[in-house]
Design goal:
Layout: E1 5-10, H1 13-30, E2 33-42, H2 55-80, E3 86-95, H3 99-107, E4 112-116, H4 125-137, E5 142-145, E6 157-161, H5 166-174, H6 176-181, E7 184-190, H7 204-212, E8 217-222, H8 229-239, E9 244-248, H9 254-260, H10 263-270, E10 275-278
Parallel strand pairs: 1-2, 1-4, 2-3, 4-5, 6-7, 6-9, 7-8, 9-10
Antiparallel strand pairs: 5-10
């Protein structure tokens, strides 16, 4: 079992390099094909132009988006040309409102989507759209790469955040190629429910399933000693010197997480290692 079709999206070259380099690394290790989508974003919104809006202004916005796409293409080609992998590159311009459909359609036909972290000073709104579209509309597992994350060929030490949810199970299934190749996999259960089906053996059923695949799995049960579950996970990831975190994405609605916060958003904002998510 391996990832054979990969996708990454390049818009802002200031944040794209870690994700593109990681995508190339995975493609080389898995003998996979990498699709690179270079996008220029038209940030105007159809329907919101006032009556006297200048056609010249609208054309200027489109030309700027085309320049962004061309810059992204040149940047990507610089990393791809000597990469010794199978790859294809497409260039496009799209309005902000249409980005989700475009990325979701591409994501649907790939095994793994590799994207930069969507939050930070230099990140535009489109980065969050890419991640959510891949997960929700594209139904594709997504690997999110922090700006300064380590990029080993294979993740040797992996943390699996387990809470018995369908989202976590989807993430585990999507991560199987990485879990099988890892030296150690630590299943982390935080404050397991006292009345759940696994109450007597938290994480035991998952561990048994993974071991049958040849995964070197162990279980750690932690108390929620910090205000947020994500804080406990982040601390444990640092303590274990992990290379990768696997977790379910958006157990609550995207709207609730955007307004009130949640484990997914907090992890993406603060993780120092790549995070593989699925919904």
């Amino acid at each position: 079992m391996a990832y054979k079709s990969l996708l990454t999206v390049v818009t802002d070259t200031k944040i794209a390099k870690p994700a593109l380099e990681k995508a190339i690394t995975i493609a080389r290790a898995q003998d996979a094909h990498l699709d690179v989508l270079c996008l220029g974003v038209d940030r105007t919104q159809t329907g919101y132009y006032y009556a006297g809006a200048s056609a010249v202004f609208q054309q200027e916005v489109i030309e700027k988006a085309k320049e962004e796409a061309a810059t992204a293409e040149k940047f990507s080609l610089g990393l791809l040309k000597n990469s010794e992998i199978k790859w294809a590159l497409d260039k496009a311009v799209a309005q902000l409102a249409g980005l989700g459909r475009l990325v979701a359609h591409r994501a649907r036909f790939n095994d793994l989507i590799i994207l930069p972290r969507p939050y930070g000073k230099e990140c535009g709104q489109e980065q969050e759209i890419f991640v959510e579209s891949a997960l929700f509309e594209g139904h594709a597992p997504t690997l999110v790469i922090p700006p300064k994350a380590k990029a080993p060929v294979d993740a040797k030490r992996i943390i699996v955040a387990w809470n018995e949810s369908s989202e976590a199970m989807s993430a585990v299934r999507a991560a199987l190629p990485a879990l099988i190749a890892a030296d150690s996999v630590n299943i982390v259960v935080i404050d397991p429910p006292q009345h759940g089906p696994d109450r007597s053996d938290p994480g035991g059923a998952l561990s048994q399933m993974l071991v049958r695949h040849g995964v070197k799995a162990e279980i750690t049960v932690l108390a929620k000693t910090m205000p947020r579950v994500s804080d406990v996970l982040l601390r444990h990831t640092r303590d274990m010197d992990a290379d990768l975190l696997v977790m379910g994405a958006y157990g609550h609605s995207r709207f609730r997480e955007a307004i009130l916060g949640g484990a997914t958003r907090n992890m993406l904002e603060n993780a120092s290692v790549p995070v593989l998510m699925a919904h």
